[in-house]
C-alpha cells in the first residue's frame, strides 16, 4: 500500500495514511476532541481506520488504554503503527465481537452514506469506509452498548442527514444524549453533528450551541483552531456532568 505521512494537531502528531482510498481529516480530530476520557480509562474506536482519531485522543489525554476495531486489514495494520501500544483488532463490527474488556468510552466515525448513491466504482477501500446499510445502524449501537461499562459514554460524529436515524437507535438504550452541530460558516446549515450518550443516563436530550468552523474568508475560527491546531477538547465543561 502506498502511504502518505500527514500531520495533525498543528504538527504534534504524524500518521501514515493510504495515498488512495479513505483518508481521515477534520471529522476524526473533532471526534477525538469530543471524547471526555480521563487518564487511566479505556477507549475503543469502532471502525478506527488508520487510527487518526485514536492518535489525536492519545496526544490530548495521556495514560489511556486504547483499542480499535477495523474491518480492513491494511488500515488496521496502519492503525497499529500509528498508535503504538494500542490494541488494534481486524474485525467486522456487524459480527459478534469477542472482546472481554468493558470500556469507559467508545467513539465512532461511521460510514457516511446510507445508500448506493455516490458509490465509488474503483476504490474498494473507500467504498467500505464510506458506505453502510441503514439496518446496520442498530447493530453498531447495540455493539457499543454491550461493550461499554455502566455509565460509559459513546461519542460519534455523523452527517446531519442521517443523524435522526442514529439518535432514534441511541435513545433506545442510552440517555443523556448531547447534540453539538458543526457549522461550516456562520449562518449556514450544519453538515455534521457530534453526538454523545451515556449508558444508564437518565437526563433529557440537549442541543448544545455548536461550533462554527470557518470565518467568512475561509480561515478556521478561533474555537476550531484551538481544537484542530492545539488539541483542545469539546464538551470541556461537561466532562463528567451526568
What does this 3D model show about the protein?
By secondary structure, this protein is an alpha/beta fold. The protein has one domain: 3-Layer(aba) Sandwich (Rossmann fold). Helix content is 29%, strand content 29%. It has helices at 26-34, 52-60, 73-82, 124-130, 136-147, 160-173, 222-230, and strands spanning 3-8, 13-18, 42-46, 65-70, 87-90, 103-108, 148-159, 175-185, 192-198, 206-207, 211-214. The strands form 2 sheets. Strands 3, 4, 5, 6, 7, 8, 9, 10 and 11 form a 9-stranded mixed beta sheet that branches. The chain has a two-stranded antiparallel sheet with strand order 1-2. The chain is globular.
Structure at a glance:
By secondary structure, this protein is of the alpha/beta class. The protein contains seven helices and eleven strands.
Keywords, please?
242 residues, alpha/beta, Rossmann fold, 11 strands, 29% helix, disordered C terminus
Mean pLDDT: 89
Shape: globular
CATH superfamily: Vaccinia Virus protein VP39
CATH topology: Rossmann fold
Share of helical residues: 25-40%
Cα separation of the termini: 44 Å
Q: Using the coordinates above, name the CATH class.
A: Alpha Beta
Largest β sheet strand count, sense and barrel closure: 9 strands, mixed
Work out the strand percent.
Answer: 25-35%
Number of strands: 11
**Rg of Cα set:** 17 Å
Draw up the topology in text.
Layout lengths: L2 E6 L4 E6 L7 H9 L7 E5 L5 H9 L4 E6 L2 H10 L4 E4 L12 E6 L15 H7 L5 H12 E12 H14 L1 E11 L6 E7 L7 E2 L3 E4 L7 H9 L12
Parallel strand pairs: 3-4, 3-6, 4-5, 6-7, 8-10, 8-11
Antiparallel strand pairs: 1-2, 7-9, 8-9
Helix pairs in contact: 1-2, 5-6
